[in-house]
Write a structure and sequence with these properties.
Strand content: 15-25%
Structural class: alpha/beta
CATH architecture of the largest domain: 4-Layer Sandwich
CATH topology of the largest domain: Metallo-beta-lactamase, Chain A
Number of domains: 2
CATH class of the largest domain: Alpha Beta
Oligomer: single chain
Bound molecules: zinc ion
Strand order of the largest sheet: 1-4-5-6-7-8
Amino acid sequence: MAARPKLRDMTAQTVLSRPVQRGGAWRRVLWTLAGVSALLVGGAALMSAQDDRLPVPANWPDMGATLPAAQPPKGLAFSVLPTAASNGGSEALVVGGGSWLTYRRPVQVAVLVNHPQAAFLFDTGLGREHAAQFAVNGVAHQLLLGYGEVRPAADQLAAAGWPVSRIRMIVPSHMHWDHVSGLVDFPDAEVWVTPQEQAQAEHGAPPAFLRSQFETVKRWRSLHFTDGPYVGFERSLDMFKDGSVVLVPLTGHTAGHTGMFLNLPSGKRYFFTGDVTWTKEGIDWPADRSKVLRRMVHLDHDEAMNQAAIVRLHGIQRRFPSLKMVPAHDENVMKTLPQFPAFEG
Ligand SMILES: [Zn+2]
């Protein structure tokens, strides 16, 4: 009778080399895989279950019967400059209630508005100095916030014969790193931000705020919403006093987060909504970013205020379905807009 092998001799090799037990080992592997898959699916379902739609009020604030009048001048046009795309992930993380099986790749863009009085950028996307700026982040944040090839807005403009000096102003939706990386590429532009946003950025820290991106700005312009109510917002700022470009406060994601209505000569109307949501689905459903991501990373300055802003955008979209909403990172929406050097006016 063969001696019973000691426990330490029962290696995987000895188990697998015995034909009688080989099937058992594979069965164990399959059961383990099934168990891990069930855990993953169960975990994902559990996480998704926490992502309820945001409650919608029975009565909306007065937004007027129609969108406000505008006199956009002939020649006003805009174009999108895609500067980079993040490495991306499951849609269920990007928007609560999204599919775990849909892969999303949020983009970082600059929006060029060419108004006869002045050309300006709404956000800059990633700029020429992105690598040095991003290098201050730890390894975990570099992985989490990773992005692909960068095509700085300044380079795209230069290639099409636009000197950077032609960009007179930059209006960041907010001062997070993926929106103001290109400020340094436009040293003569006036940067319009609210005092609250500037203060938050100056007291902020990586990875959200990167000092190297804005410490050399020469010309700040303090943005105040000195004009009257607009589409339900109590205050607004009509940039050129012709109703074509109207800024509104969308506080929550950051302290001075700003949105931009753009009213074109063609009659087409856009609302650039920054990072209130990362996707159009967030406005349509309405839904915040996934709870699991919000608990993992500190995303919002004031989460409750940002959720109120999401619901407000949802209400505006319901009231004015022809108004085209443009969340700053939604790659699907961006694809439908004119890509530089193409313009729409
Ligand atoms: Zn962003």
